[in-house]
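[agent] plan:
  1. take the single chain provided in the ticket
  2. run structure prediction with default settings
  3. attach structure tokens to the ticket
  4. add a short note for the reviewer (M.T.)
[agent] executing step 1
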Amino acid sequence: MIISHRHKFVFVSIPRTASTSIRRSLMQCPDLECQALPAETHSVPGEEYSDYFRWTTVRNPYDRAVSLWKYYRQSYPYGSRSKSAPLPLSFFQFAELQQLKGLVLSWWFYSISQSEMLQGVRIDQVLHYENLEQELKELPFELPFTQLPRLESTEHRHWSDYYDSFTEQLIWDWALQDFEKYGYPRLLR
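[agent] step 2 finished; step 3 output follows
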């Protein structure tokens, strides 16, 4: 989470939605105060921020799941840090783990949907990863950058190439609220 007192906003970050690129770009503004979002509560701290504009970014859940899988494999190329959760070798295995919320404990934050992550947090504007450059311009304040760098990005084919009817159903079930709340269509195979 990034808080700007000058612009009176709070950026609430969700993993794998360009949040690292946004956070680092926002740090160009000298009056920004960086404060970590408490993962256990998913809430914005303090009454002093109640009148601040709160915004976040979301991503197509199918695309985000592929990105999470690639990032997980990139982070743990030789296996998991936990003996109880071996490294998922395929996207199919990863999709099953997402459905069961069965990733290693240090990854639990990544295994919940975007809606779950924002539960109980007042958000004034949701920006979509797919239209981010345009939607950043529509915020009610001017940002100190015009383009975002690609940080911590993963290289992969188009996300739709990773799905069959079974993995599509697993991710649909896992992120149903995301599809409904943020307007993403179902991929039917």
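[agent] step 4 note for reviewer: The chain has one domain: 2-182.
[agent] ticket updated
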